[in-house]
Amino acid sequence: MTNSMKPHRRFAGVVKAASLPLALCCTLLAPPDALAENCRLSLSQPRIDYGSIRRDAEAQSTTVVLAVRSLSVNVLCIEPAAMALRFVGAAADGQGFRFGREGRYRLSLKNAQVDGRPVDWAVAHVSGAPASGQLLPGQAVVAHAAGRPVVGRRLTALVEIKTELPSNALAVRSEIHLEGQGSFELVSSGVPPSQ
């Protein structure tokens, strides 16, 4: 962990099904770390609530897509640092994270700026990878401008959360809880994506 600036934040999701109050929660935790004194990572809100979701009489699709939610992620550093983020959670597949037994959520970084300048995202340790801003299982993304990694003191970005469930997840007789958990991490560019 000596190469990591790892003030990370827990991200958890909870869904109740049947008369389904659905909630996606963010719980913030910051473990101590040797380099954490330079940078702090924070999220704009500790909880995202989907409210109640009711099962329709006839399912129109095999998948239920919940409303897109968003929050802000902010990184503030005392000294300039490379801005690289990853999200660590149980993978649903290569494109998203597990939400309940069969659902998934996907995270994308939008409108990112470092020190007030717009930046794109590139997958760490994968040259020539497209700059999508999507946080994928097992990968870190690095803030880039003009094809080069960006160093700065302040990062701001919108995190877009897209959650989907199989429609049969709503076919229950009593209230149930579905959950997805993970953590945002600020990492140095020297840390491999799998650590």
Automatic annotation (TrEMBL):
It comes from the Bacteria. Keywords: Signal. Residues 1-36 form the signal peptide. This is DUF1120 domain-containing protein. It comes from Pseudomonas fluorescens. The lineage of its organism: Bacteria, Pseudomonadati, Pseudomonadota, Gammaproteobacteria, Pseudomonadales.
